[in-house]
Amino acid sequence: MKTHHHLFFLALALVFFGSCGGPTEAVSDTAGEEAPNIVFIISDDQAWTDYGFMGHRQLNTPNLDKLANEGLTFVQSYVPTSLCAPSLASIATGVYPRRHQVLGNDRMLPDDKPEDKEERKKIRSERYRPVIDHFRQLNTLPDMLKEKGYLSFQTGKWWLGNYANGGFDMGMTHGDPQRGGRHGDYGLEIGRKGMDTLYNYIDYALEEEKPFFLWYAPYLPHRPHNPPDSLYQKYLPLAPSEYVARYWAMCEWFDHTCGELIDYIDGKGLTGNTLFVYVCDNGWVQEENAEGYTKKSKRSPYDYGLKTPIIYKWSGKIAPQYNTRSLASSLDIVPTVLGMLNMERPEGLDGIDVLDESALTKRETLYGEIYAHDFSTIDNSLFYRMAITDPYKIIVPDEKNKPGEVVRLYNLSEDPFEETNLADQYPQIVDQLSTRIEVSWKQ
């Protein structure tokens, strides 16, 4: 699918929203004030280009456009890995996959060779159990928020067994393999089958007179791409194929659900004291003539798999701004939320508080890592490591697991779709960024 037209329309979006190359303004002082409600909105399989506020010509995403316009929106922002389970685990913990050990969606050891589907499910469940056990020992954001009296609710995607494994007080995902638990089970109904469970959680928190943390990570616009027919028919004459039309319709369907959630919170009079955070778990570029995704999107080390806008909105507390230059990461979300709540930052977090002007200015590099979908250990499953700077990005294939692949270097400011490998032209930059990756891993 042709994507270069997005550059022109992204420029138009920057004119509309305004832009800034420097650090953001800090959040207003909140010491002694009522703790805000916190709502995480996490889309599933959506390219960084596929929003109205990012300049897409056909897609309508009015609710996310409004959120971006009213919030602090980072454009040069990334997740550390381009697959659902590890990306979501990093959002919840604020650490790289190599630390939380959720490297991929499924865990299979080298000698595992299941012959049928049911045997594979059984082995997969057994192999994933120690990953879940390790994750339960980590400090997640819901765990941290208990100090402030928060009630935490999980809906949507969740790969780590029962919602309680992530520190949530309540949730939709039971995680029982005997009942089909794998990556969300009942949680995957949110959005696709209505929003009532979310509303019930909010009402319960109000009855309990406690602040709430809400994890809204619906199975949208993720496959199956089965949008309402009205949306499909809307995009069919606009898209290059029926497959793209279905994907675009799914993106707008997701946006509709976001609007419903935001409107419900507003109807309860909670908007002024609610922090909204938006991020996507990983990217997606729809194949024009097939149901799948292109090789340079999901599960890949390219920006179409890793890049996502990240939005923070808290009315009256965070100044609206469209930040087009500062490097930001989903790893920043946990420390940024803690900073807004004047909470002590625990040791070991890999991100920064993006409202700390000094930290944002000093940041020079973001890092990423890609593993096998069916992983075993870091050593046996690591595919790529990345370093992202302004303007260069390096992709370093693992010599053991990706033999024969070359190092790739791109100038993202001139080549945002990563088409021209500059590694041979700039060996010094390759050496410099490769060294930064090694130092990061040793830390």
From TrEMBL:
Please indicate which superkingdom the organism of origin belongs to: Bacteria
Secretion signal, residue range per the UniProt entry: 1-21
- Sulfatase N-terminal domain: which residues? 36-342
What cofactor requirement does the entry state? Ca(2+)
Pfam families according to UniProt? Sulfatase
* InterPro entries xref list: Alkaline_phosphatase_core_sf, Sulfatase, Sulfatase_N
Keyword Ubl conjugation among record annotations: no
Question: What GO molecular function annotation could you give as one example from this UniProt entry?
Answer: arylsulfatase activity
Q: Which SUPFAM superfamilies match?
A: Alkaline phosphatase-like
Alphabetized UniProt keyword annotations: Calcium, Hydrolase, Metal-binding, Signal, Transferase
Family listed? Belongs to the sulfatase family.
Full protein name = Sulfatase-like hydrolase/transferase
Origin species, per record, is Neolewinella aurantiaca
